[in-house]
Every structure is written in C-alpha cells, then in structure tokens.
Amino acid sequence: LVLNNSSPECSLIIKSVLYINISKWFLLKDLFAAGSDTSSSTVEWAMAELLRNPLPMAKACDELQRVIGSTRRIEESDIGRLPYLQAVIKETFRLHPPVPFLLPRQATTTIQILGYTIPKGAKVFINVWAMGRDKDIWPEAEKFMPERFLERATDFKGADFELIPFGAGRRICPGLPLAVRMVHVVLASLLINFKWRLPVKVERDGVNMTEKFGVTLAKAIPLCAMATST
User: Fold this and answer.
1) At which positions is heme bound (predicted)?
2) pLDDT, mean of residues 193-217
3) What is the pLDDT of residues 109-160, one digit of tens each?
4) 166 close to 157: Cβ distance less than 8 angstroms
5) Residues 122, 125, 126, 129: what is their CA dihedral angle, to the nearest 10 degrees?
6) Residues in contact with 101: Cβ distance below 8 Å, sequence separation at least 6, in sequence order
7) Which segments are annotated as binding site?
8) Can you give the pLDDT at residue 31?
9) Looking at the predicted structure, is the pLDDT value of residue 16 above 60?
10) How far is the C-alpha of 80 from the C-alpha of 222, rounded, in Å?
11) pLDDT tier at 168, thresholds 50, 70, 90
12) Is residue 128 within 8 Å of residue 102, measured between CB atoms?
C-alpha cells in the first residue's frame, strides 16, 4: 500500500531499503547454515565412526574424564587441552568432509598445473572427499585412525592443502569458526555426559555408512544409537 501510493522516487528508495535488508537476511542465513547444517552432519559422522571403533571411543572418553571430569560442563577454552578429541574431529573431516566439493573457482588466466592445461575461464572443482581418501597422501586411507593427527601437525584451516574441508585462502568458508566450535563442544558434551552403544540389530549388522551426496555430505541413513547417563 505504501509503495502504491508513494511517488516514484520514494518507491525506489523503499524498494532499495527492502532489497538491502533482504540481502542481509539471506547472508546471515547462509552464514548460520554453513555453521549449523554442516556441524550436525559432522557430529553424526564422528559418533558413527566412534561407535564402530571402540578403541578410539574409549580414548576420547578417557581424555575427557581426565581433563574435564563429570562435575562441570565443557567450555570452549577446554578444547585446546583435548588433543585426542581434536584428532577425532580432524579424522572425521578427512573421511567425511562437510561438503564433497568446494565451491567452484574460475581461472582468470590460462595456466599449467602438473602437466594439465587449465584454460582461462574454466571452472575448477576441488574434490575434497577424494583428497581425504587418497592413499598417496594418507596411509590406510579408508581406516578411521585419529592417532595419525597426533603424529603430524596437520590442520584444516587452509594452511595444509591435504586437508581443506572448508577451503583455503581469502575464500575460505566464513562459517568455519562457528562450525569448529560447535562440533568440538557438542561432540565432547555427548561423550562426557552419556555412555553410548548401538542397538543389537545395528551392532550385529554394522552401522550403515552410506553417504548421501548433496550440498552437504550427510549420512543416507540416520545414525541410531542408545545413550545412558554417566
């Protein structure tokens, strides 16, 4: 009604303000989605891997009890004192990156990389899922081994190109800080407050680790686990 009854100049101003506000809303929505949707998927993958691998599960729980105990909540400041938990998260990012492909890039000039010609204007997709399972980079690539990150100073914040689930450089995922904090705190809270086991049928048949490829790399069949209070 305001737009219909106002002058053309006023209508243009109102439309511009509405456009800016809507654009800001979508930007904020994307930022929170990047940190929440991918985080919940990563926590689910981490729990699935830990439930399939009792020894890493026991090591993670022992570290949490030793450092945090069961009398207080985990805080963000505790993460730096939990190297094994950090290794579990890194190994989860390696095997199950939040997205299978990074956002496409476009070559601004024709270049040569390892004998391949990338022509100007070509779109380049980086397959981080395949990189995480490359046997030339990772020994026993298909095996869930958090210990590998206790022996090497590899991080996932863009400096080490063998593990870039969030991208690298100036165009690294803006949701990374939120996602990393959420994943560590949520996973630690689940492990320190509950004892987990698989239902009898799932334990007998094994956890279905089929992946559902999409915008995020989620489990095709949601994880089913049983929790009891510690």
Assistant:
1) 173
2) 90
3) 999 988 999 999 999 888 999 999 999 999 999 999 999 999 888 887 777 8
4) yes
5) -160
6) 125, 126, 127, 128, 129
7) 173
8) 55
9) no
10) 30
11) confident
12) yes
Backbone angles phi, psi at 220, to 5 degrees: -65, -35
**pTM above threshold 0.70:** yes
Say whether pLDDT at 190 is over 70. Answer: yes
Distance from C-alpha of 165 to C-alpha of 101, rounded to nearest angstrom: 9
pLDDT, mean of residues 34-63: 90
Strands (DSSP E) contained in the chain are 105-106, 111-113, 116-118, 123-124, 194-197, 211-212, 218-219, 226-229
Q: Looking at the domain covering 2-98+134-229, what would its CATH class be?
A: mainly alpha
pLDDT of residue 55 exceeding 70: yes
Half-sphere exposure of 73 (CA within 13 A, CB side): 4
- Residues tagged in the binding site annotation for heme: 173
Q: Are 182 and 175 in contact (CB under 8 A)?
A: no
pLDDT, averaged across the chain: 85
Q: Say how far apart CA 44 and CA 212 lie, in whole Å.
A: 13
- How many C-beta atoms lie closer than 10 Å to residue 121's C-beta? 10
Q: Which two tokens stand for residue 181?
A: 């904090």
Give the angle subtended at the CA of 178 by the CAs of 93 and 137, to the nearest 5°.
Answer: 20
Nearest 10 degrees: Cα torsion 29, 35, 41, 43:
-150
What residue spans define the domains of the chain? Answer: 2-98+134-229
Q: Kindly report the CA angle at 158 between 79 and 132, in degrees rounded to 5?
A: 90
